[in-house]
Design a protein that fits this description.
Layout (H helix, E strand, L loop, with lengths): L1 H21 L3 H4 L42 E3 L4 E3 L4 E5 L15 E6 L11 E4 L9 E11 L2 E7 L11 E2 L3 E9 L1
Antiparallel strand pairs: 1-2, 3-4, 4-9, 5-6, 5-9, 6-7, 7-8
């Protein structure tokens, strides 16, 4: 029995050796092993434009100072803010502006009247073009002008990238001037 096992093992090893040298391997010789067209042109893609990014730990621009001492009245048991064109906003749980803004907080917003009312660092409430019934509250990270006029690039503080597309002045409703927790 031992003799048959040894003979079988030797025959198997010889078969592998003979097969490796006598039978051509198409992968080793560079021969085509499947029907692939000779040359398929790769379409040129538009260059990928990386949206606004900021380095971790980088200094962000602060919002403009819009409330000064003349707007604040302090009393023994109350504080009054004397501001015009304001609204109070409630916030949804989206996490895009965490930890600064979260659900349960309320915001004091001023109506914007001109592009001069908005600067980099401000947090603005705007209507996105794709969902005009919604309001997005994000920070202005870039301001510019193009063939269509003034625009802002916005970004949630907790988001990795800026929002898609440019925000035009006619989309901006308010600028945030205070958060109440």
């Amino acid at each position: 029995m031992k003799k048959y096992v040894i003979i079988s093992l030797v025959a198997f090893i010889l078969g592998l050796g003979v097969g490796a040298f006598l039978i051509p391997n198409p992968l080793a010789t560079g021969q085509v092993v499947s029907d692939i067209p000779e040359e398929v042109p790769i379409p040129e893609e538009e260059p990928v434009i990386v949206p606004y990014q900021e380095a971790m730990g980088s200094e962000r621009a602060s919002p403009a100072d819009r409330i000064n001492e003349s707007h604040i009245r302090r009393y023994k048991s109350e504080i009054h803010l004397k501001l015009r064109n304001t609204t109070i906003a409630d916030f949804n749980e989206t996490n895009s502006m965490d930890p600064l803004i979260d659900s349960g907080a309320q915001g004091i917003q001023l109506t914007v009247e001109s592009v001069g009312d908005i600067q980099i660092g401000d947090i603005v409430a705007y209507e996105p073009l794709e969902e005009p019934s919604e309001i997005v509250l994000h920070r202005v990270v870039e301001i510019g002008e193009d063939g269509n006029g003034w625009y802002a690039i916005t970004k949630g503080d907790n988001n990795a990238f800026a929002d898609y597309g440019k925000v035009r002045f006619n989309q901006v409703r308010y600028v945030l001037v205070g958060i109440l927790y």
